[in-house]
Amino acid sequence: MSFDPGMLHNGHTAFANGTAVGIRETGVVEKLLTSYGFIQCSERQARLFFHCSQYNGNLQELKIGDDVEFEVSSDRRTGKPIAVKLLKIKPEVLPEERISGQVVSAIPTHLDGKSAPGQVPTGSVCYERNGEVFYLTYTPDDIEGNMHLDTGDKVSFYMETNKHTGAVSAHNIVLVKKKQMRCQGVVCATKEAFGFIERADVVKEIFFHYSEFKGDLEALQAGDDVEFTIKERNGKEVATDVRLLAQGTVIFEDISIEQFEGTVIKVIPKVPTKNQNDPLPGRICARINYTDKELLFGEKDTKSKVTLLEGDHVQFNISTDRRDKLERATNIDILPDTFHFTKESREMDMLSAQRNHAVRIKKLPKGTVSFHTQSEQRFVGVVEKEATAAITNNKSASPSKAKEKEAEEGVISYEDCGVKLTVSYHVKDLEGAAQPQAGDKVEFSINEVKRTGQQSAVTIKILNRTVNTKRLLGYIATLKDNFGFIETANHDQEIFFHYSELCGDMENLELGDTVEYTLSKGKGNKVSAEKVMKMAAGSVYANGDVGEAVMLGKVVRPLRSVDPSQTEYQGLIEHSEEGESPLAVEEGMKGQNYSFGIMGMTNKADCLQKGELVKFQLCTVAQTGQKMACNVVPQRKALVECVKDQFGFITYEVGESKKLFFHVKEVQDGLELQTGDEVEFSVILNQRTGKCSACNVRRVSEGPKPVATPRPDRLVNRLKSITLDDSSAPRLVIVRQPRGPDNSKGFNVERKTRQPGVID
């Protein structure tokens, strides 16, 4: 297309008919060729042709996208409107004051300043006005000083509006403050209120106060990996915002896989001098890659913590510090042939008589060195004083109440070559679980300590028991924090005992265990059990014959462990008439009362309450001939009142409480109980809290299922009367569809938010 500038109208008339005076308009250069181009008008939807001769300025500076001002004329030949008298205008900057903000998305660095044709790499900044946050885009040309901005940097800028698109962007961006980089390190020292961190970027330590640690201060210890921010206070660098990292995150050095051999030429001084500041005072000479090399090492670099001497042959790895590339020897271990080259004296004994210090220790086969000698001869003697074992009350609710009783040694008298002698012994030197008492005849060997010559009796075996003290049989009825009660063999009373009198481990003692004990009287003539010892498995004494008939009854008096206010130990069951077996009816047992003890209950931990129904059998006590209830099983059924996340409540009265707590793990078969389900259960008493709870919960039947409430008739009739064709019925008309994110990166407008739809 050819263009003749002389074909334009004379003057500044805007159109071919000459009816209007020329008006200046603005627009954006949309297309630019060698001699002509096109402009997109800003004030109206029009695209105007222009000839390059109409541009007032350096044509080389005109680019696509530049804002221009022009007048509109018409082509004389075609009559079409064209742009004349073009002037390039500078973009308007709003506002005049600089705005402070922050970089939220930096320009990608992987583009290396390049992008696809027609695209310019962009970033975004944000600023706050009246509690709202606004986002603006920027390009590399908008940054002053050709600096690279990172996410989080504090900046200031002007706002610029593109008249063609209306988009607002950031312009003349100046860096105010760089974002503080996070550093890493390892806690190397902790004091009372502060500590020090060894930095991973430089060979240097930095101070931090405990108030700057973000985490559990009790868990912080030397060697933990941390990250922090460096700030300057009072002219010194300190670590702030200290946070824990996963163990192994911070690595200071790289250790070679290959091992090397060398010779120690300088050892670490045992007593450091005042002027010694070298943390790696040791030296090893080695030949590495056909070159003699001298490597440093410190106290922490020896693998076996052995004392090194000059001339030792060692093997080691090479550690290279990532911060300053310093190499040193580490994992140093003496080679087996070292002692053949050194002229040191080696000993194999116990150096206890002199205050000597053992060095360069070599491990010998187990049993090579013995500290004791044991006689082959066996001696016979009599126990004069009983030994006691150390007692620790681990069942105490409070650690401060867990008192320890130290072990006491016993004494045995014996004769050797007509001379009467005594020797001490300890509980740990007894053979078997039985503990000898004063007057018992025992057999033993004598053990002598080489260093001190002290003698003691070992491998002690009881030959004859003394007949002066009678041992009684009983059953564990109650276990408290530091004491308990024993049910006698006749099942008619209970005997107090303290855990310090127990011979053995308290943790292995349970309700119903058979024990052997001795009676003694203390202050106020109160009887208690002493030397309580758990009987071995299989040493259970039978209660007598057990009847075959299973009867139904009601608890009229519980055990004293359930109701401590009562004076009688035994519980009492009244035989009821319901559910009678034919045998019970024939024998006339209706309405009779039968006592029971802890051994009469099937579940020793169950708490039978007054008024509960039970099933039981009768047995005859061999010692007294008394008939007692045994194999007592409660018959409890109740409804589940409510079920929470991990627990629930049963409608069952225990003491003053109307509800009984249970945990879901106590429900058998893993069933999920619902409100209204009928269940069977056992009741146990927590000795510490004094509260009861249900265990062994089993569902008997399911409760009624909830029924959905039907809609009211008035609502059903109203829905039936409404039709879609009814013009008088209310309608919803969508005027504008909602608009969401367009899945593009960054922000292209001043503030992008979701536009709600409108319903009329």
From TrEMBL:
PANTHER family, alphabetized: COLD SHOCK DOMAIN-CONTAINING PROTEIN E1 ISOFORM X1, UNR PROTEIN N-RAS UPSTREAM GENE PROTEIN
GO cellular component term of the entry, any: P-body
Function in brief: RNA-binding protein involved in translationally coupled mRNA turnover. Implicated with other RNA-binding proteins in the cytoplasmic deadenylation/translational and decay interplay of the FOS mRNA mediated by the major coding-region determinant of instability (mCRD) domain. Required for efficient formation of stress granules.
SUPFAM superfamilies given in the database record: Nucleic acid-binding proteins
Annotated SMART domains: CSP
Region of interest (Disordered), residue spans: 736-760
Subunit structure, as described in the record: Component of a multi subunit autoregulatory ribonucleoprotein complex (ARC), at least composed of IGF2BP1, PABPC1 and CSDE1. Interacts with STRAP. Part of a complex associated with the FOS mCRD domain and consisting of PABPC1, PAIP1, HNRPD and SYNCRIP. The interaction with PABPC1 is direct and RNA-independent. Interacts with EIF4ENIF1/4E-T.
Sequence ranges assigned to domain CSD in this UniProt record: 24-88, 182-244, 471-534, 635-699
Subcellular localization(s) per the UniProt record: Cytoplasm, P-body; Cytoplasm, Stress granule
CDD domains linked to this entry: CSP_CDS (cd04458)
Record bears the keyword Lyase: no
Keywords tagged on the record: Cytoplasm, Phosphoprotein, Repeat, RNA-binding
Domain spans labelled SUZ-C: 710-751
InterPro entries: CSD, CSD_CS, CSDE1, CSP_DNA-bd, NA-bd_OB-fold, SUZ-C
Presence of the UniProt keyword Repeat in the record: yes
Primary site of residence: cytoplasm
Annotated protein name in UniProt: Cold shock domain-containing protein E1
Single GO term (MF): RNA binding
Family: Belongs to the UNR family.
UniProt xrefs under Pfam families: CSD (PF00313), CSDE1 (PF23456), SUZ-C (PF12901)
